[in-house]
Sequence to fold (338 residues):
Amino acid sequence: MDMIAKTTIQHMIDALEQGQTPEVDPEEIPCFSKAALAENPVVTEQHLEEILDRLTKADIPTLKRALVSLEHDDQAWLGFKVVTDPAACTSDDPGDEDTPISSDWGPSEDGQSCIFFANEGKDIVCSRPWNKRDRFQMLDITRGPSMHKDQFAGVTWVSTPLFATQRVVIYGAGDVSVALARYAHDCGFDTLVVDDDASFLSKERFATSERVLLSEDWSDLPEKVELTANDYCVCVSRGHIHDVATVAFSVKSPAAYVGMMGHPAKNKDVFDKLVAHGVDEEALKGVHAPIGIKIADKTPAEIAISIIAELIDVRGKTRKQAAANVAALVSEQAARNR
Fold:
């Protein structure tokens, strides 16, 4: 899912500070977009309008906290409690007693829809009161696995991320790449696959990926692929023919990760050629080679699993560091405002 724009949140803050109701196009809040609502029969655009109508200056701290996380790529979410039936939401009736958890938790704290902020560190900011049951569902719809958002009658929950989706850039469209693109998509990465052969780089092989067709010598790679700090580069060119070019291109970029497939002797040969072509030896020390976590892999699918496992680990550590940085920043700001 796309993340909400900083300008949208700032617009909401500005309107509330002026005592006005924020006017926001549902498409600007991904969990209320037409695409999202098509998969959610419970929530409608009208629910968003009702939530926006109820916002007051008391909700500004929630939005400001979301803005801080958005600006620093913290793993956090802007969430929405959507009350569809206030009486059922606040009822003491446990509902289906065959559901073990629902019979013990009682009603929601109140029957009003609202916005809230939650992050990976389990921090919650919300103008409305919440109880143990609400907290459970707030964290479930944000941190996952989002299995319990409709567990209780009269209320559901949705959220939109405040952090960018990382992208796996796969150089080469061989069999390992086919499996890797599939696993990366399932694990929440966007994927881009590049190759010089359209027959390998087909929609059938890479149904969920952006695909870029290069010239035979890959000289147009810098023109067609732009890398950012949210990119994870995987150098698995068919026959290793273009590993030198792709590693050289990647290590000179802001990419968060660069990995290259191959046995140690082959990888050393690639590194020697890179150094001879003027690539900084220190930069090459950050390349993951051989790529992936160490398992007894042999098949393309097994190799892809070892690679995606390493990418998940790197992403998780990066997000934890971002969360720690934001927590320190928020703590400093709170101390200054005392």
In short: The first helix runs from residue 6 to 17.
